């Protein structure tokens, strides 16, 4: 890109394109999934095996020899497990399929002398070999949690499928076994032992081998995931952080979310010149960046190109959450991606802020009421606080968190009181009680990160649940009134998703579609505080800056949305330790721009 900052239109428009053609990896993955499903059905349902589809099922890879049911079931599950990796062009999935399909073809010929079965395996193998260069994606970041997740999911699936296997031979059953007997038979069978259910003829062997195959697959895949070399998620190194801080010193004023790039659970790619960078985290196969690239706008395309190269190398889905209008224009122009408005960021200009006037009446009355109740506020830089007080603030923020799962990614720093973050601003509310609490007179905390030399961006909002409602309003007003003392001219508050839809939908003349969309957002606000955050922000009469999501295709949006909810902490697929077992001395990870529910609702 040349010519400095690109021209800005009134809104980033969604690009209109035709449907993208289906890729070879996607087609091969779908074919393997289909073959896997038919194999599973052929191994489980006896009527299916004696139907007209039996001829096709018998020549599929894995369904050969005297152990047809068990082998068909095993091959089907393995092909289903490989299908997703093949769709994403994963090299290891390709290698496994290339080994599996010739083995299936050889088994068809040796055990069944089936030329047709061998040809079907080779037919699936041919596109894998011809298009092998399209299966070059590197492995995803992973951890040992995958082994536990596999054990739980495969175990549950094996139990359910095992009950089906035990129950689909009603004409062969001896007696009338109860559900408990059948479940016991499944549990025994998964471990290779004979259970209490018996069948006439050779059906007992078929059921036993099928259950044993399920148990074997569960054990082998879990052991593999547990013992394979760990490829942990990338972390921000000290050198990366130092380079990012240097870029923020020169260009941090451009984006209010810039300082959040310093989260240490993100990775980073730099432009070839080193003058720009994009930070990201990989979540469920989505390469999720947040905010605008860091650094010189003229170097943004180089960093974006490196980002896209990394996404292609791993077959990750690229996405950007919360970029500005300028950032959205550069991303869409340089990559061909699309952009949609996600919501608006509330920005208050300190010079224009005042508690006077009718519009600020509710905030003014609330602040006066709390001050009369004996609360006082303090606004300071992190570097001006002692270590003992910082530790007390960290522990209070951890203890006052409203959920067991930490929330925040795109607008959260993930730490409080780090020595490297001395320019961060902390606003605290205090009130002396007759019986001091565990944190003394501390009642509420607001944490702001730098936004260039003359701005701050709201990061964390925590309060003692026993304190009076309105702590957040009190501290925001205190921070805005103290801002001139720190040469701060602008303050970024919360991000309001779908703010324009909520605002337009409640006006006279709004159409039925817009009203229906607003109604859905209000309904979802019961869990995600969409409407309450918008109304909370609007109290301070901010100007609204649009923020956008950048994505590759409309079909990717559900996946990107789910990955974003995971990153922000709304969906947690891991198994956290119970709260009483966590280390209390660990610095609190920060909640993303989310006021305490009691304060928002009371306001």
From TrEMBL:
Residues 22-218 form the Lysyl-tRNA synthetase N-terminal transmembrane region domain. PANTHER family: PHOSPHATIDYLGLYCEROL LYSYLTRANSFERASE. One of its GO terms (cellular component) is plasma membrane. Pfam families: LPG_synthase_C, tRNA-synt_2_TM. It comes from the Bacteria. This is DUF2156 domain-containing protein. It is found in: Cell membrane. The chain crosses the membrane at residues 65-86, 117-135, 147-168, 205-227. GO terms for biological process: phospholipid homeostasis. InterPro entries: LPG_synthase_C, PG_lysyltransferase, tRNA-synt_2_TM. GO terms for molecular function: aminoacyltransferase activity. Keywords: Cell membrane, Membrane, Transmembrane, Transmembrane helix. It is a multi-pass membrane protein. Residues 245-551 form the Phosphatidylglycerol lysyltransferase C-terminal domain.
